[in-house]
Design brief:
three-stranded antiparallel sheet, 11% strand, single chain, 55% helix, mainly alpha
Length: 94
């Protein structure tokens, strides 16, 4: 089972409660906590919370084809100006 670490806010979203209730639940369950280099405290999920996390991922209705199409369109828009050549600055060449 992989280790999953979440902030109190992320855990609150997962559990459908507020950050303070999530913090209380972490204390009640004696879950490991760690202060990370970005300054946030993260909590290591136990097996039950990990399963809940994986279940939410499976239930997510993510439009992968739409995301791929959007990325391709963004790439096309970014490459288009480069294909036209260097931009003219309006001063002309003497």
């Amino acid at each position: 089972m992989p280790q999953i670490w979440m902030t109190y806010d992320e855990l609150a979203t997962l559990c459908g409660c507020g950050p303070m209730e999530a913090r209380d639940e972490v204390r009640y369950l004696s879950l490991p906590r760690r202060k990370c280099s970005d300054g946030a405290t993260r909590v290591k999920l136990n097996a039950a919370l990990s399963m809940k996390y994986f279940a939410t991922i499976r239930e997510t209705d993510f439009d992968l084809d739409g995301a791929i199409a959007a990325l391709r369109e963004m790439h096309r828009q970014m490459v288009e100006p480069l294909a036209r050549g260097p931009a003219s600055d309006g001063r002309g060449v003497a």
